[in-house]
Amino acid sequence: MKQKKQIKEFDFSEKEIEDAMSQLEGFIDITPDDFAQIYHIAYKNAQTRKAEIRLPEEKEKSRLWKWLRPISEPAPRVHLKDIVWSWLGAFSGIGLVSWIHYGLLSPMDMMFIVGSFGASAVLIYGAIKSPLAQPRNFIGGHFVSAIAGVLSWQMLSGSPWLAAAVAVASAIALMHLTRTVHPPGGATALIAVIGGPSIHKLGFGYVFLPVLSGALAMLIVALIFNNIVKWRKYPEFWI
How far apart are CA 136 and CA 24, in angstroms? Predict the structure, then answer.
């Protein structure tokens, strides 16, 4: 949107003010200094009024532009080498926890993976500079969210809909309080409620296996894959 050029305030000399006053008919009982002060005050008041009072069509255009502007700004492209490396990291991280889950623990009726790890993989392998992807957020977010989910189910299992709502809301609150906001944590809390008997019977064991142990395994892969090439660095911060 084209912006109108703003008129700048002038600084008049005393002689210029006197010359202007001499050209007016009649007598003016005012000094050049008084005139300069009146001019400056009037100018500032006019600018304030102009900023506060705009034509309805100008307001409408401004409001419309607020919503249309993001459409005209395309998302930045990701370099092909980063796409490939993100794919390899996610394949290795999810592959590791899946192999442990299905190959080692499944026969013992134990778990090592939850659905929310898929969303975490997007962050810790594909958006490694995001504050939400850093180890504090990744591990801490899953940890406190799992606790919130288990507690919600144990206290409100008689009303599953209420337990689900309390679990996610409490997970968000705890992540804010502990500075560990990690969006997939909301899913970790929800899974503790809707995961069914296999999850419910784990109790607080769910917090450590699969959640905490699986997250740590994925973090180890992230630390390796995101640092063995010179164009990537992870983490941005630890705590």
Answer: 74
